[in-house]
Amino acid sequence: MYFKNSRPKRGSGVMIAPNKALTAAHCLRNVETNEWAESVVVYPAYAGGHAPYGGATGWTYHVLSSFKNDLATGEYGYTRNKVENDIAVITLSRSLPDVGFLSVTNQVAMNQKVQVVGYPSDKGEYMYAASGPVLESSDRLLRYQIDTYGGNSGGPVLDANNRIVAINIASPKEGVNTADYLQRYGRNSARRINQEALALIDYAKNNRNSAKGISKVIATFRLYHPGLKYHLYTTDANEKNVLAGQGWNDEGVAWRTDTQGKPVYRLYHAGIKKHVYTTDSNEKNVLARSGWKYEGITWYSSGTKPVYRLYQPDLKVHLYTMDTNEKNVLSTRGWKYEGVAWNVE
């Protein structure tokens, strides 16, 4: 997992379709900082530096909205609510047809033997499995006394038929680490495959947008053309890749948004070869009558983090940034600050 301005992090997951990986939501969003991973690279059957099937990058995440929205309230840390909703699906940029994938089931019983599979960090870069009985079961959680370690998060919990019954996570930090609890269950927990998890997986497999307690979170990419001296923003990875081969510098993920909220419109002016983005339908309509081509809704304003809009009158270009320092510096260098354009995750 790649987070901005930090070293890559490692976790586990399991393929559930040729281009879908099931994992823990906390692998994709840092519960201490509210930051989403910019991207995730999945390496099936990785072993000691060898990736027999290569890797595939994922930018689109499906999560339970209650996991995401809990963070929006300012509740930092791995709270009980986050534990109970700690499951996610990554959509990869390409299919891996030579890789097998596993099915899921919501059928699991007390004392049933299960197997936890993943990449514990104390074992280097190798996959390990450990097994034991289910000691506690509820609608959303399983608990067991099976050896796991950092890095196991997101790995599958399998039944005797290699069906996924849960995703290995961790235990909440508050109110559970008593001597009695640790003696009985240790810190081993899993997010069970229940009806809402099955719905999440169905939404992801069918690439559905956010609805009914499920959020599809997508990346917006930022590119810069030194000749045109302006930035372009797109959620289309194919457009990003094509432009990156035509003189545009790929500057990475600018921000993430939900696929529901207030629409952000994109318009293009062929004369000046520039785009503008706005949530203001009146501005959109006025520009569409003034030589600008309306290109549709490009993403949605959602979340609590502001994106700032600035304008450079000499270059006749807008810039959009989450970076307060970039906004402040540009405001002293001929750019006019126009306020908050929209919010992001």
From TrEMBL:
EC number: 3.4.21.-
TM segment ranges: none
Full protein name: Serine protease
Domain of life of the source: Bacteria
Signal peptide stretch: none
Domain DUF5648: 220-344
GO biological process: proteolysis
Gene3D superfamilies xref list: Trypsin-like serine proteases
Keyword terms of this UniProt record: Hydrolase, Protease, Serine protease, Signal
An MF annotation (GO) of this entry: serine-type endopeptidase activity
Family: Belongs to the peptidase S1B family.
InterPro entries given in the database record: DUF5648, Glutamyl_endopeptidase, Peptidase_S1_PA, Peptidase_S1_PA_chymotrypsin, Peptidase_S1B, TRYPSIN_HIS
Keyword Calcium set for record: no
Organism (species): Streptococcus cuniculi
Coiled coil: none
